Amino acid sequence: MTVLYLEDFTPGQRFAGGTRIRIESERAKAFAAEFDPQPFHLDEGAASVSIFRGLAASGWHTAAVTMRLLVETEFQPAGGIVGAGFEELRWPTPVRPGDELRVEGEVLEVRPSKSRPEQGVVKMRTSTFNQWGEAVQVSVGNLIVQRRPS
Amino acid sequence: MTVLYLEDFTPGQRFAGGTRIRIESERAKAFAAEFDPQPFHLDEGAASVSIFRGLAASGWHTAAVTMRLLVETEFQPAGGIVGAGFEELRWPTPVRPGDELRVEGEVLEVRPSKSRPEQGVVKMRTSTFNQWGEAVQVSVGNLIVQRRPS
């Protein structure tokens, strides 16, 4: 796996992960019990009459799984994947138990830092898809990436 | 606990949670091993020479714990806390093992939906603080909230 520096990124670059992660019902409920204990994430009956019309994984579970998928792609910045923050994060489609998720990314912008000459920022859109090709999460985030040592 | 409808929210309202959650080292490492397996989240030695200069919890762990803290506040919209999406999500300060986190929120905007008369959107800033009062996460998100049945 090649480690990438800021100079290796250009807007328009895309990458896709080969890994798929299946969201198991029991894991989704356990994640929700620990972090997002709301009826529509915990219980099929309560979920069926909620806004989700059926059990849905917590969006934070989807976000966490997306991070895992991202770590397993060829997108490997020197110093690791370090998020400075997101300007967009949304969940267009609920994640259901049994869904298999995969991730795709696109570089939107590359900016050297003015105050820190050894690093810069890569703005990236990351999209997470289910097995039907529906986007279940879309985010636009800024990652801190090291410049190539001179 | 009173259930709140869209009509119960006004810009400027603030709420704070009484709950604190302590981030234990083993839980932070286990979360990272499952969802964000990067050296600075897994191993003290590797973390000490990383951008974080010491073990840091995954930002997604902080986000998930923030959701748990939010569920335990008096902020209880009818239909649950359902995020339509975020316009901002950032982690200004790393979360360290042993940190105790708490949450505060502020309503920024309240908008009835044009296309769905039974619901609306509450834009809210949520800030997560450590035991030193430093913000470890700040987010601005849009929540789907039901209107009071007429």
Automatic annotation (TrEMBL), chains A, B:
<dbReference type="Pfam" id="PF01575">
    <property type="entry name" value="MaoC_dehydratas"/>
</dbReference>
<protein>
    <submittedName>
        <fullName>MaoC family dehydratase</fullName>
    </submittedName>
</protein>
<dbReference type="InterPro" id="IPR002539">
    <property type="entry name" value="MaoC-like_dom"/>
</dbReference>
<dbReference type="InterPro" id="IPR029069">
    <property type="entry name" value="HotDog_dom_sf"/>
</dbReference>
<dbReference type="InterPro" id="IPR052342">
    <property type="entry name" value="MCH/BMMD"/>
</dbReference>
<feature type="domain" description="MaoC-like">
    <location>
        <begin position="11"/>
        <end position="119"/>
    </location>
</feature>
